[in-house]
Amino acid sequence: MPKRILQGTVVSNTNDKTVTVKVERRFTHPLLKKTVRRSKKYRAHDEANKFQVGDSIQIEECSPISKNKRWTVVI
C-alpha cells in the first residue's frame, strides 16, 4: 500500500526535530454546493531542524516515531 503524501505549511518549529504542519483541504459541500476549506495540523519529523515557520513542505506517512508523530518531512 502506498504511503500518503500531503502538502502543507509549517506553523511551528519550537520542538526539537519536530515541525507542526497545517494541511488544508478543499471540497464541495454536499448540500450547499459551496467550496469549503478545512484544515488540520500534523506533527512531522524533521531530523535536521532546517524548516522554518511559513515554509511550504510535503510530509509522508510513516510508522509511529512518538506519541503524536506519524509523519516525516519529504521536501
Describe the structure.
With about 80 residues, the protein is mainly beta. It has a single domain, classed as Nucleic acid-binding proteins (OB fold (Dihydrolipoamide Acetyltransferase, E2P)). It has no helices and five strands. The chain has strands spanning about 5-10, 20-30, 35-45, 55-60, 70-75. A five-stranded mixed barrel has the order 1-2-3-5-4. The mean pLDDT is about 95. InterPro entries: NA-bd_OB-fold, Ribosomal_uS17, Ribosomal_uS17_bact/chlr. This is Small ribosomal subunit protein uS17.
Question: What keywords describe this structure?
Answer:
5-stranded mixed barrel; 75 residues; 52% strand; OB fold (Dihydrolipoamide Acetyltransferase, E2P)
Q: Which bin fits the share of residues in helices?
A: under 10%
Query: Oligomer, anyone?
Result: single chain
**Count of beta strands:** 5
Low-confidence stretches: none
Based on Cα principal axes, name the global outline.
globular
> Which structural category do the helix and sheet elements fall into?
mainly beta
* Share in β-strands: over 45%
Reported CATH architecture? Beta Barrel
Supply Rg.
14 Å
- The CATH homologous superfamily corresponds to Nucleic acid-binding proteins
